[in-house]
């Protein structure tokens, strides 16, 4: 019992140090019985009382009362989305590529690892059944790939920024597949790669 009293006294002393000096020492009546300040202590009574948070508004931004999102909340590339086009989206696969040699695989000399940070290219494989290579219209932006055929459309937000003019596309008619290889923009190459 003596250990309980010392821990209760320690808790009370700690509360007194951290509190703002409100009248925790006074005794109050609670439903007809006396409650001491020690009995009122709990985890929420340590420290200053919580403050009420005010709603943060950005100054200078005019908001329409019917707006759902602000311009800052809309994802990059959403201007490419065409909701009125009902053509189906083809199956696709995104593969991150990096060039490694035997010294990387067995000895780890270049400092490359299997993470996406060390990848140099993005390969996008797109299945296009019943399509000819001449029917494909492909537009590559920094973070968006737009593919249109008479039967399919694909608007793909890329996981990394790419060099839009340093890619290549190959159409394999026997597999009915388009493979687009895009070089990743790597602004920190001097840190990531050696």
From TrEMBL:
UniProt cross-references to Pfam families, sorted A to Z: PIH1_CS (PF18201)
Region (Disordered): 16-61
PIH1D1/2/3 CS-like domain boundaries: 89-185
One BP term from GO: axonemal dynein complex assembly
UniProt GO cellular component terms: cytoplasm
Gene Ontology MF terms in the entry: dynein intermediate chain binding; protein-folding chaperone binding
InterPro entries named among the record's database cross-references: DNAAF6, PIH1D1/2/3_CS-like
The family this protein is said to belong to: Belongs to the PIH1 family.
Protein name listed in UniProt: PIH1D1/2/3 CS-like domain-containing protein
Organism annotation: Pleuronectes platessa (European plaice)
Taxonomic lineage: Eukaryota, Metazoa, Chordata, Craniata, Vertebrata
């Amino acid at each position: 019992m003596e250990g309980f009293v010392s821990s209760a006294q320690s808790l009370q002393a700690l509360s007194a140090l951290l509190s703002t000096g409100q009248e925790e020492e006074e005794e109050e009546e609670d439903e007809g019985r006396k409650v001491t300040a020690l009995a009122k202590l709990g985890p929420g009574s340590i420290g200053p009382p919580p403050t009420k948070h005010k709603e943060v508004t950005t100054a200078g931004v005019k908001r329409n009362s019917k707006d759902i999102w602000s311009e800052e909340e809309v994802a990059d590339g959403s201007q490419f989305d065409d909701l009125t086009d009902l053509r189906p989206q083809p199956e696709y696969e995104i593969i991150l590529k990096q060039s490694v040699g035997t010294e990387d695989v067995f000895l780890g000399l270049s400092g490359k690892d299997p993470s996406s940070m060390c990848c140099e290219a993005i390969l996008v494989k797109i299945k296009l059944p019943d399509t000819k290579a001449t029917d494909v219209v492909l537009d590559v932006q920094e973070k968006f790939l737009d593919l249109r055929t008479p039967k399919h459309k694909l608007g793909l937000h890329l996981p990394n920024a790419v060099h839009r003019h340093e890619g290549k596309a190959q159409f394999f008619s026997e597999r009915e597949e388009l493979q687009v290889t895009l070089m990743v923009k790597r602004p920190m190459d001097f840190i990531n790669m050696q």
